[in-house]
Amino acid sequence: MAFFRDFLFSITISLFLTTLCYAGDPTVYLNWEVKYITVAPLGVKQQVIAINKEFPGPIVNVTTNNNVVANIVNGLDEPLLITWNGIQMRRNSWQDGVLGTNCPIPVNWNYTYNFQVKDQIGSFYYFPSTNFQSASGGYGGIIVNNRAVISLPFDEPYGDITMLIGDWYIRNHTSLRRSLNDGKHLGMPDGVLINGKGPYQYNSTFVPDGIDYATFKVEPGKTYRLRVHNVGISTSLNFRIQNHNLLLSETEGGYTVQQNYTNLDIHVGQSYSFLVTMDQNASSDYYIVASPRFVNETVWQRVTGVGILHYSNSKGKASGPLPLGPQDENDKTYSMNQARSIRWNVSASGARPNPQGSFKYGGINVTQVYVLKNKPPVTIKGKQRTTLNGISYVNPDTPLRLADEYKVKGVYTLDFPDKPLTGASRMASSVINGTYRGFMEVVLQNNDTKVQSYHLDGYAFFVVGMDYGEWTENSRGTYNKWDGVARSTIQVFPGAWTSILISLDNVGFWNLRTANLDSWYLGQETYIRIVNPEATNETELARPENSIFCGALKHKQQPYHVGPKSAATSYRSKLLLSFLTLIFAIIV
């Protein structure tokens, strides 16, 4: 009976699920159990969030236009959502995994995401989007490969390596969250992790004995593609590899003009691909370094991530001082110039055969302009909050997309201001009313004292300008209207602005947020609502049947849940039942 059941299940996988997904494209299946495990990345045992007992979680490896069916079991002690940072969820904001589109997965429940990686390539990552949980892990890399018919704009690398770097606290996310709720700052991180591991002991004063560190084994003379993601909380990191050049090739789904860097600043939420050739003599191993930026390096010296690049013919361990990064704690000009140097490769083909530059964004008329200004935290109704244009966003109990679907009134307002408000800041569920097929200019003005990264779900935007000072309409004269890189996360330096252009062709509710986790948690976000006035199914997929209901719609929720141990069995059983029903219908 077991053999017969598994045989039918294998047929189900190959035949039936095409009816659940987008017909004609292959499907990748993920079955994840999200639970706490105990590890000691910085030498102190602590609870982290793992996926299938892995910390960081498994790499999602897919190809352009693949469908992804991801069954997520919440084995934590609080509700959970997983968001897919940079995956555009074309026509399908239902699967975005943020509080504006989805009710959280309750404890001991499972939820199956079902989406297509439509017309995308590149390097992305996933993470838990609620309750400050990503401060305890739950993240992992996403690789979207080119289809075979689309050639890469570089020779096929010998290997592909994912590196997840980020600041890290020994306190878990619940403790950090409590500090923010109490109006306290998080303080200096305890370290920087590389792939969930602490630093190599390059200096016994800063790194104690017994720390497990990340080692990346390579072959001499070969070229590897390194996909580096800053999955941290709030710290910009400078990434470098001792004695090796980093040939930048892609960022968040956009192929870039290829140019060498000895180091690159990677801000919170950002992802980059480098081509690195192993062209050294391997007299010893080489340091891989991720060090904090724009801080007092004397004080922060222990907060440095150090991994090891190990050639197969290496003659010894790495030793000596770390390779130096930029020495400009109080001068961010170097970092801004570096960011400006990153350009779109307009002649390369991305997910489609036509060159990236065939979309001539510089010639499109702007239909909406929003100047979004953030500032240091303020006190609103006795609580420390962060704001955009004087509004601190409050997530309503009912997700915005569900409220629209069921015409629930009073959940949100479509009155987000297009420029900073005067007067006192306030808390509200205020949303930007975007125009379908419009072209929006968003100016991000950072009046805080630290670098802010901003991310937009559902889109890749064009980075057309950045500079210090206050943005004015005259600033448009400096815009790059030809090869500004297309990406989904961009930094805004303190006392500076960054301008982006967005082609609003993806219907749904899309989260525009700071990627700095502490500022996001305290309200520095909003949503852009895009509705096709013709309301056809061609521009948005229907609500998935397995939607979880909460808030004003909780009465619609069926009393169904799955314990962690039975999740895989339940998922297989439901698929098998659906397949048998289909076969029965055909026979009859």
Automatic annotation (TrEMBL):
Residues 34-147, 160-314, 398-533 form the Plastocyanin-like domain. The keyword Metal-binding applies. Gene3D superfamilies: Cupredoxins - blue copper proteins. It is a lipid-anchor; GPI-anchor. Transmembrane segments: none annotated. It comes from the Eukaryota. InterPro entries: Cu-oxidase-like_N (IPR011707), Cu-oxidase_2nd (IPR001117), Cu-oxidase_C (IPR011706), Cu-oxidase_fam (IPR045087), Cupredoxin (IPR008972). Its main location: membrane. Keywords: Cell membrane, Copper, Glycoprotein, GPI-anchor, Lipoprotein, Membrane, Metal-binding, Signal. Its cofactor is Cu cation. Belongs to the multicopper oxidase family. This is Monocopper oxidase-like protein SKU5. It comes from Papaver atlanticum.
